[in-house]
Amino acid sequence: MVDALKLKIKTLAFGTHCVECHVDESFFDGQEQTEVRSADVDVTLQVTRKSEEAYRLEISCRGTVTIPCDRCLDDLDLPVEEDYRLNVEQTGTEFDDSNDGLLIVPSDWRELDTAPLVRDTVLLAIPMTHCHENEDDCNPDMLDMLDSHRVEAVPGDDDHWSETTGTDPRWEALKKLKEQ
């Protein structure tokens, strides 16, 4: 599976080539700490060789990933429908991925491993916060436990709050210093 994502760029014929593969949770294991518990994603990688040193990559990922719900920690299936396009230039001696949409690889590279690009494409499709859309889908035992630990007010927090202005008077004192 991962070998299919290694492109032999030096010997790639001019024109468009398509690579299709399927990734599962093992694709995400061992690379970095991710929350992916399982995955069922079809990947289509289309590479177009434009010249001796210029390529166009189009990555398309379709499927689902299972991650923990932020609220109840039970499995949450999220759809993945993500596309990513970038140009690759094979020039110089340095690797440079600092430009958005452009990847520069050393001219002596014979192979380009696109697995990190595919992995990032899938991981970036996961929203920052991920909870079951309906709270009724969450684990009721976990929700009960969370409710039992809920704190309505922090003791002593009211000491610094002004009911009349709706602000913390300490901020008002800092604003006065700034105005001086």
Brief overview:
The protein has one domain: Beta-Lactamase. Helices cover 16% and strands 34% of the residues. The chain has helices spanning 115-123, 140-148, 169-179; strands spanning 6-7, 15-24, 38-49, 54-68, 75-90, 102-105, 112-113.
Task: Describe the protein in words.
With 180 residues, this protein is α+β, with helices and mostly antiparallel strands. The protein has one domain: Beta-Lactamase. It has 3 helices and 7 strands. The strands form 2 sheets. Strands 2-3-4-5-6 form a 5-stranded mixed β-sheet, with helices on one face. The model has no long low-confidence stretch (mean pLDDT 86).
Supply Rg: 25 Å
Helix content: 10-25%
**CATH domain topology:** Beta-Lactamase
Biggest sheet details: 5 strands, mixed
- CATH top level class name: Alpha Beta
| CATH 2nd-level architecture | 2-Layer Sandwich
User: What structural class should be given to the helix and strand makeup?
Assistant: alpha+beta
Beta content:
25-35%
Distance between the termini: 65 Å
Strand tally: 7
Number of helices: 3
Strand line-up across the major sheet: 2-3-4-5-6
Structural key phrases:
Beta-Lactamase; 3 helices; alpha+beta; 180 residues; two-stranded antiparallel ribbon
Sequence-ordered SSE layout with sheet pairings:
Elements: E1 6-7, E2 15-24, E3 38-49, E4 54-68, E5 75-90, E6 102-105, E7 112-113, H1 115-123, H2 140-148, H3 169-179
Parallel strand pairs: 5-6
Antiparallel strand pairs: 1-7, 2-3, 3-4, 4-5
